[in-house]
Design brief:
- The complex is a heterodimer of chains A (about 475) and B (about 300).
- Chain A has about 475 residues and is of the alpha/beta class.
- In chain A, about 30% of the residues lie in helices and about 25% in strands.
- Chain A has twelve helices and 22 strands.
- With about 300 residues, chain B is α/β, with parallel strands linked by helices.
- The radius of gyration of chain B is 21 Å and the shape is elongated.
- Classes of the chains: A alpha/beta (about 475), B alpha/beta (about 300).
Chain lengths: ~475, ~300
Amino acid sequence: MLEFPRPGFLLAGALAALVPLLLHLIVRRPPERAPLPTLRFLRPDPRTAIRLRRRPADLWLLLPRMLLPLLLGAAFAEPLWRPQRAGTGEVVLLDRSAAMQTAWQPAVAEAARLLLGAEGEPRGTLVLFDSAALLIPRPSLTPAFFDSLAAEETGSAAPDYAAALRAIPAAVAELGDADSVRVHLLSSLRWEGWRTGLAQLRRATWPGALHLTEPRFATNGMTEAAGPAERRRAWVIAMPGEGRFVEAALGATGWSVERLAPGSAPAEDTGAFLVLAPVGAALAETLAARAEQGATVVYAARLPPATQPGFPWDPARGGAADVGGGAVYFGSELVLEGAEGHFAGAPAPGALLLAAREDGRPAAAARRQGRGCIVFLAVPLEAGTLPLSAGYPSAVDHLARGCASGQPGLHRVGNTGGLPLDAGALSLLRGEERPPMVDARSVSGPVAAVPLAQWLLLAALGVALLEMLLVYARRSAP
Amino acid sequence: MEATTFLPPQLLERIGGLDLIARAVVQGFVAGTHRSPHRGPGEEFSRHRPYQQGDDVRHIDWRLFGRTDRFYVREYREQSNLRGFLVVDSSLSMAYAEPGGIPKLRYAAYVAAALAHLMLRAGDAVGLATFGGESRLLVPARTRHGHLHEVLVPLERMRAQGSGGAAEALDRVGETLRRRGRVILISDLLEEDGGESLLRAVGRLRARGDEVMVLRVLTPTEAGERPLGPGQFFDPEHPDRVIPAMPGADAGYRERVEEYYRALARRLIEQEAEYVALSTAQPVELALVAWLRLRRA
């Protein structure tokens, strides 16, 4: 397959090739010297008669003169010849760290879906990683392999994304018949590893385009348990005049919503409690107890009056509060525009990141509490034009689901100092249409495209020499 | 007399040498112009007088005898002893010929040969002078037998050279004509001074009482009747004068040429000289028509 990254030069060369054709059609009548005795009556006129031939003169000379600009235009278009390939190869980075305990089997199923063809043949490569990366040989990728992998336990180490990302070149080398690579990262999002891994990845040169698909959050639908649909119950704890957007969003997403005044006692239920107003200590303790029993308690920019052990948000860590606006990303598929304000602090160690701001600041964190979940949203849920976003109901539903299952044991993350995610991670979170192009110079995998520009320049040189020889021969002819 | 009945100049060359050409032209001309019976070509009837003993019986008008029963003889005009000179321009400009045409010099030679033939038949003495490189009196004016050949030979051998004007030749001819004569100038009249010296020379001839006839010879191309393509044109008599031009696109070229010759003709006519414009595309006989008109005047 022939590609022209700069097709404009092709057009320029074609247009330039028309110039010699036109010149070979023009007959510039040479001024003949002729006697005329009545010269005294003539007025000087230096014009030279020009007419057009019906057919171009000297076709043998015209041919190289037209070919030369065509070859130069083609050369400047930087043509690349790519052998026919099998298309895009898939590389899956599967997190098997302790963080994936609750999402392991769905993640393995997703990996199998991405890497196995219709008849169970491998069409990609697999990298298993936790604190180190392991490249699974491509021939080993069979349905039976994935079945056995799903039955295994996850590891106990923390995920090292840098190791996973550095394994990509080796994984690509297995894709001998692909001319582009798509990397899928199946993992729950953590702080460490993103920046380091992506920085190294950017220094490499890849054959073709590298697509880093968005990471799969553990709660991004993969862990949805199959089962009979039942109407879940949610309570909105808000001051009068507040909470109507949240109520409507919950109602639109299948929740049965009731309203509670801040001083009211919550029901004996394990649904979802969305706290939009300040609550007293007693209510906070009650809500904590409900979480232990399996409820999801969502504090929307409101802290409980007293520090609760295991609370997912630490106001003393991270950045200060601000009143700026922007978007909130619940993964790449759910983005809310129009948020106003940001609570101070950062996720507590061990907390699960649910959302982030566009500048990388965490915007929501969750932590298991008993069989339930405590969620803290650092952005006011009804401020600005956030409620007007199309994804608002889904986001509220997402928050109300909290940790999504009752499995405890979230892995504790290291202290990253509250630094924001780097540009690569941010672009992944944003789900930008153009995934970051990464240069992977060290990849020795599939053969790169063959540049043809130098050959075309060489041909152009030969044509130019031929044209000169033809002109010389004509001038030397008697 | 229709010009179309005569041979075009381009075909005359096929007849043969100038002698044959001249005879052919004159015979054709005479055949077209002869009306009344007269004794011979060149002799014109003058009057009847009663027959006297000793008169040539061949001159008796028998028709008149049939009507009157008396013998009368025809009297003819006396053979003219007018001396004439053909002055032919042989300068370099006369060598010009347009594509498919004959050179002006050759055309002038046809005209001169035909006129010489006709004039000698009429009893005129004919001489020949040329000018171009230098003014030369090539043949003195005579009427003796075989003189036509003496005129035709230098005409046949004429070659274009030089760029001299007609004035000197006319003056020399005038000096040669001791008494009233007839001077026929055949030229393209492309004089360096615009014809001033020519006009003065014609004036001097007219003052002496000589008859002057000017036959201007020009090609249709020079006259602007046929367009010329673009080119670098030069004057044959002055090759260093070169100008790029497109005569076909020069709308005023023909007008300028005609204006030059009109002015010249006007001044010649003012001096009671005869002026005839000839084109190399026209039959030579037209020149003879003009001569005849002059002779009858």
